[in-house]
């Protein structure tokens, strides 16, 4: 505790003299702010992922599909539940992730094994949308000022959530009754429950599937820049953390014990 307090006080002195008083003191020249320790991400093995996904077979749809999509595409949880119809490219087998972390758009793959399930989900969603139009509840929330610029877009098919909630809810901003996207907490609960049922000792969350996606495609031989683009990282150094995961455990270095 005391070293941490001393670091805080030293940084405040540094800020006072350099930024406020504009005074240079020689003893402050070598001062650097302490860095947060970098933690390695939790990564499941392919066998652990298989076991977890088997335990989600009984999950209500579309929760099971979302969980598979997280591992199959590397999307973050909120990117998946907020996915819009217009951003699913079935013909090209691509998913466009809009307004990801840092406000960036990116493209990721749509796995072959999920193509038919996603077609079924979109067909069901289309039926719901037609019902919503008849009831006057087809409007969805639009980002930024799009609702003002394009007043009819909120009820258009392309802007609908792929993974919409079964029931209507009251939008706290507009007070309108309409469909929101699936509750992300529901996905979190099922992932945790499936990990326990599969006997996985590692702390497992939906984001663990993103980490596992990145690590496994690196293991498959894809280059770090490709992984960076799929994950939407601004700096490749962020993606490099997964190479550290690969190198841990003796894969890249042979233990001297094994050479005896």
Q: Which short descriptors sum up this protein?
A:
260 residues; mainly alpha; two-stranded antiparallel ribbon; 11 helices; 5 strands; globular
Question: Your description of this structure?
Answer:
- The two termini are 44 Å apart.
- The protein is mainly α and 260 residues long.
- Mean pLDDT is 84; it is low at 1-6.
- The protein has eleven helices and five strands.
- Helix 2 crosses helix 7, helix 3 packs parallel to helix 8 and helix 8 (206-219) crosses helix 11 (241-247).
- The radius of gyration is 23 Å and the shape is globular.
- It has a three-stranded antiparallel sheet with strand order 1-2-3.
- The chain has helices at residues 2-20, 46-55, 63-73, 77-81, 112-135, 146-149, 184-197, 206-219, 224-231, 236-239, 241-247; strands at residues 88-89, 94-97, 106-109, 164-170, 177-181.
- The longest helix has 24 residues, at 112-135.
- Strand 2 (94-97) and strand 3 form a beta hairpin.
- The chain has one domain (46-247): hpI Integrase, Chain A, CATH 1.10.443.
Write a concise synopsis of the structure shown.
This protein has 260 residues and is mainly alpha-helical. 46% of the residues lie in helices and 8% in strands.
**How many DSSP E strands?**
5
Mean pLDDT value: 84
Q: Using the CA coordinates, give the radius of gyration.
A: 23 Å
Class from helix and strand fractions: mainly alpha
The low-pLDDT segments are 1-6
- N-C termini distance: 44 Å
- What name does CATH use for the topology? hpI Integrase, Chain A
Roughly what percent helix? 40-55%
Quick one: CATH superfamily? Answer: Intergrase catalytic core
CATH 2nd-level architecture? Orthogonal Bundle
**H/E element order:** HHHHEEEHHEEHHHHH
Q: In which order are the strands of the major sheet placed? A: 1-2-3
SS summary, helix count: 11
CATH class wording: Mainly Alpha
Largest sheet: 3 strands, antiparallel
**How many domains, in number, for the residues?**
1
């Amino acid at each position: 505790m005391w070293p941490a307090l001393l670091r805080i006080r030293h940084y405040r002195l540094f800020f006072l003299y350099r930024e406020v008083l504009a005074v240079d003191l020689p003893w402050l020249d070598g001062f650097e702010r302490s860095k947060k320790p970098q933690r390695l991400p939790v990564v499941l093995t392919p066998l652990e992922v298989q076991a977890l996904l088997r335990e989600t077979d009984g999950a209500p749809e579309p929760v099971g599909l979302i969980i598979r999509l997280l591992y199959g595409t590397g999307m973050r949880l909120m990117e998946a539940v907020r996915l819009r119809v217009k951003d699913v490219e079935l013909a090209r087998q691509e998913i466009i992730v809009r307004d990801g972390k840092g406000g960036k758009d990116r493209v990721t793959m749509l796995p072959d094994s999920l193509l038919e399930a996603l077609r079924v989900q979109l067909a069901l969603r289309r039926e719901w949308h037609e019902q919503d139009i008849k009831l006057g509840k087809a409007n969805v929330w639009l980002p930024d000022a799009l609702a003002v610029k394009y007043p009819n877009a909120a009820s258009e098919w392309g802007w609908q959530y792929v993974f919409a909630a079964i029931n209507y809810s009251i939008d706290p901003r507009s007070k309108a009754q309409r469909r929101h996207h699936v509750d992300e907490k529901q996905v979190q609960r099922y992932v945790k429950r499936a990990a326990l049922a599969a006997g996985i000792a590692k702390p497992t969350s939906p984001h663990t599937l993103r980490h596992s996606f990145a690590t496994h495609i690196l293991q498959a031989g894809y280059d770090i820049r490709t992984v960076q683009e799929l994950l939407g990282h601004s700096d490749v150094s962020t993606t490099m953390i997964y190479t550290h995961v690969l190198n841990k455990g003796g894969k890249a270095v042979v233990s001297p014990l094994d050479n005896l």
